[in-house]
Amino acid sequence: MGDAGDKCALRLAATARKWLEDVRVDREGRVHPAVASGGQALTWLATAGARVSLAEPGRVVCSLRVGAPLTDAEGRWHAGAIAVAADNVCAAAVFTALGADVLTVQYSLSYFSPAHLDEEVEMEGRVVGRKAALAAATVEVRKKESGELVAICRQWMAPLSTTKVSTSTSSKL
């Protein structure tokens, strides 16, 4: 990669880090309008307090402590909160590779063991493949102290696009 490519990769990694550590802000550092109006609360709550230890092209590693709002009555990290956190980490990892905001096209999550209130977890997101405009990514969620696997997420993501969808009436179907 040339000097310009290196600078671009560093900029994308820094942007992904900043967003993951505070998903309430957009790429320009402004509070996202949906959050300001009270929407998308779970999206930012799921990774509140996240600390990114590594952000590089195609890979993001972060950790967070499971907070009370994200647990069930027994003090276990709620499956929905794990799913949202994993989606956020996947989006950050794919952003570092594509350089564009992304949306989830396909999502699969397998749960292995529970994490509990105040337990620290580490999430590692990786881009594992690309097919045309799509990117395949995985996130492993582990208990930081023991390394025990909590969940694995597999996703296909695509860049958000403002390009007009073809209005052609022809179809291959």
TrEMBL record:
Residues in the signal sequence: none
Highest taxon of the lineage: Eukaryota
CDD domains: PaaI_thioesterase
InterPro entries per record: ACOT13, HotDog_dom_sf, Thioestr_dom
Residue ranges of every copy of the Thioesterase domain listed in the record: 75-148
Molecular-function GO terms, alphabetical: fatty acyl-CoA hydrolase activity
Family named by the database record: Belongs to the thioesterase PaaI family.
PANTHER family named in the record: OS01G0229600 PROTEIN, THIOESTERASE SUPERFAMILY MEMBER-RELATED
Name of the protein in its database record: Thioesterase domain-containing protein
High-level lineage: Eukaryota, Viridiplantae, Streptophyta, Embryophyta, Tracheophyta
